[in-house]
Amino acid sequence: MQQVLSHPIFRRLFAAQVIALVGTGLLTVALGLLAFDIAGAQAGRVLGIALTIKMVAYVGLSPLITALVARMDRRRVLIAADMVRAGAALALPFIDAAWQIYVLILVLQAASATFSPTFQAVIPEVLPDEGDYTRALSLSRLAYDIENLTSPALAALLLTVLAPSWLFAGTVLGFLASAWLVLGTALPARAASRDRPFLERVTRGSRIYLATPRLRGLLALNVTVSAVGAIVLVQSVVVARGAFGGSARDLAVLLGAYGLGSVLVALCLPRVLDRLRDRVVMMLGAVGLAAVMLLAGLTVLLAGWPGWGAVLLVWAALGACNAAIMTPSGRLLRRSAHAEDRPAIFAAQFALSHACWLLAYPLAGLLGAHLGLGVTMSLMGAIGAGGVILALVVWPPNTAEPIEHSHDDLPPGHPHLRGARRVAGAWVHAHAFVIDDEHHAWPTNG
């Protein structure tokens, strides 16, 4: 980890990510307090609509905005996104109606849907070595987990000495600091790209994503992650305070166990991925994630809740399995597109993964309210298992190896055919395969 942090450009970008995440965490707490001030007992409804708007913005706007900024300087794009987020957060304390929250959340999350895929696509170019990039992914996973653990505590600490409105000031400062760090960072120039029509730029990332077997497998695993993760994020409060009659502190401990499991695995993964293929690690994590949730649900359904310590271990295991799936996912995306297409493919992952969450969140909430936690955990675990089975079907082994394939659509002398041999009227060669302008479909028979 120290080796990758010694890289000056990555170190500044990582610091920008961490600071922006802390700001986002403070915003989450402040938004809840603001919703209660405006809507009182209806605050949950307001927050539910706001979170739905967030997910819709992520799903619908990320590919569109990525296409719009495709030719722009990436540093300016990142800084502009941070400034828009800071402006939206600065305006939140001055609003006095629920609809105004919805408008500002849409603006805020549209900026986040711009920042995140652009940021994620830059890192593989800053760290071209796969080992360094793997360690960067682990650090990024750690940053998300630690933010989930520390931001609520930091917000609680600040609220002991400051008014709630000052939490928005902390959010604004976080985004401004992130923009300042990016401003002082020299990012690699964009890879040369062809001039494409706007509609093609909008859809290109999704087309590459859905035509690539390992990324179709990743999408199936996103189903598993969102189905099980929705239980953790939506129903943990019901487990801690309803099933066990605990306090807010117990809820924090339960979520902390989930975060701790994720942190421990993220720390170990770089060495594991040096020895095992991404597909093996991710499938093991997915099988564990679905199995733990399914078994926990059946246990609750048939025998009642186990002890509090056992529940903490279950949540820690869920966090560990989740990290085993999500941490290597950036390696798959990096490997599946040329540099010019990486922003589009990261935007596709951003949109498609959040589409899974958009379905999983209300499903976990509605099933829990009508069928009880035991049935809901079992059903969501079963959905997660279905995602694993689908991933095994659509993602065969060895898709990262050089694949022999033929071209009958390229003229003789085309640069891509250098070294190819002529067989039965077609040009045949082998290389690491990605979907691009010369390869429109994945070869099925070599």
UniProtKB/TrEMBL annotation:
Q: Does the keyword Manganese apply?
A: no
CDD domains reported in the protein's UniProt record: MFS_MefA_like
Q: Which GO terms describe its cellular component?
A: plasma membrane
Could you tell me where this protein is found in the cell? Cell membrane
Instruction: Give the record's membrane topology.
Output: Multi-pass membrane protein
User: By its UniProt entry, which Gene3D superfamilies does this protein fall under?
Assistant: MFS general substrate transporter like domains
Query: Pfam families recorded for this chain?
Result: MFS_3
Per the database record, which ranges form the Major facilitator superfamily (MFS) profile domain? Answer: 9-399
Query: A single GO molecular function, which one?
Result: transmembrane transporter activity
Keywords, ordered alphabetically: Cell membrane, Membrane, Transmembrane, Transmembrane helix, Transport
The portions of this protein that span the membrane are 12-36, 48-70, 90-111, 166-187, 217-239, 251-269, 281-302, 308-325, 345-364, 370-395
PANTHER family documented for this protein: INTEGRAL MEMBRANE EFFLUX PROTEIN-RELATED, INTEGRAL MEMBRANE PROTEIN
This protein's name? Putative NreB protein
